[in-house]
């Protein structure tokens, strides 16, 4: 993009009478932050603003930051700098907004700084610096709101904040205590998304298994029935929508066992994203992880017995303060025993204000590097073996993109953005968002290759678009959403 060096100014921009005010959006961080961005954009669109695809086209730019670890802070500060350089009128929101002094030190002329999930404050700041143009035509919005994901999948955020106290994490300080959305509200949003053509719902939060605990599992109504605001009722309700339902950020508590039969019955995808973080009980204690006292290997074995198709994905931290050679060896043994399908790994990175910084001596960077490489090598071997075992299987996939005659798709075993993919070299007439049946013909450490066996039928009971429900293109973001390293759960 050619540089546009507007002088930063706090005076409201006067958009020409006929010109629609345009807001540029930069969304960084985890899927939770992405959902925050979607909500802000939805509100702004409802008030007549447009989303600008470039810095030059924007009258003001909102940067939704991540502040979880130092590298994410640097990335966010760089993104603010880029927006200041290219546009000059910048509103900052998101997790880094909780530390306004860090932002003001580098970028003293940003227009406004707000914290995470501060939708109203961001919208007010946009009003202040770029007044809306009143025109009833702009109240026409898709029923499902504005999304930054492709139209065939959507993140469903069920709660904000977290009641846990993991020693490496400052999310509870940034985003507050657990604040669950009532079950009826969540299921109605999911229903609207399904009716608008979304084929896969990705359930996200900081701790999905804790859903509803803050509301004492309050009862709610949906489709004329009574449900409680709790994990298992949410899974049951979502399982009625006829779309793929993928559960992220679940902890291995005993009550999670109840979802496995729903997976075996095909109501919910047989996929669990559980951030185990380590396999050594002593490290997990120092991390103060939820459910650290559970026998996770026994639990995994029982889940696989009851639902053999179950895919398990997880993230780990190596080089946590005080991690000894013996504790790291325990982690590798645990990994061998657990045989997880999908694994991500991060080297411990200090987070300003996190208790872990002082629990024990820090592991030297070169030792962290060496452990990271050994861990990833072992995880890649396991992944390659498990993927090779899928050769010859005929599976249903959802197509994410089509280019150069081929397609990139995913099966029940792959979540978007974080897992591998199923490559289809000859896509035929497939389009993004289509279902297809493929036969697996190749595999490597992370991805599969498949050949079309046929177009797949819609899922039984799949929701049809509501009459009049608008289809829309995804709203744009000026940068690709990025993950923030250690912000894993
Ligand atoms: S790591 Fe996850 S579960 Fe632990 S405190 Fe942070 S947000 Fe909560």
Characteristics of this structure?
globular, binds iron/sulfur cluster, five-stranded parallel sheet, 20 strands, 20% strand, alpha/beta
Estimated helix fraction: 25-40%
For the secondary structure, the number of strands is 20
Question: Radius of gyration in whole Å, from Cα?
Answer: 23 Å
Sheet/helix structural class: alpha/beta
Widest beta sheet: strand line-up: 2-1-3-4-5
Number of helices: 12
Shape: globular
Enumerate the spans where pLDDT stays under 50 for 5 or more consecutive residues. 1-17, 457-488
Q: What's the end-to-end separation, in Å?
A: 34 Å
| Mean pLDDT across residues | 84
Taken as a percent bin, the fraction of beta residues is 15-25%
How can the largest sheet be summarized?
Answer: 5 strands, parallel
Bound molecules: iron/sulfur cluster
Structural summary, described in words:
This protein has 489 residues and is α/β, with parallel strands linked by helices. The protein has 12 helices and 20 strands. The chain has helices spanning 31-46, 70-86, 100-106, 119-129, 171-175, 183-195, 231-238, 260-264, 281-287, 296-306, 325-338, 365-388, and strands at 22-27, 50-52, 60-65, 90-94, 112-113, 153-157, 159-160, 179-180, 200-204, 219-222, 225-228, 244-247, 271-273, 311-318, 342-347, 394-403, 406-410, 422-424, 435-443, 448-455. Strands 2-1-3-4-5 form a 5-stranded parallel beta sheet, with helices on both faces. Helix 6 runs parallel beside helix 7 and helix 11 (325-338) packs parallel to helix 12. Mean pLDDT is 84; it is low at 1-17 and 457-488. The structure holds iron/sulfur cluster.
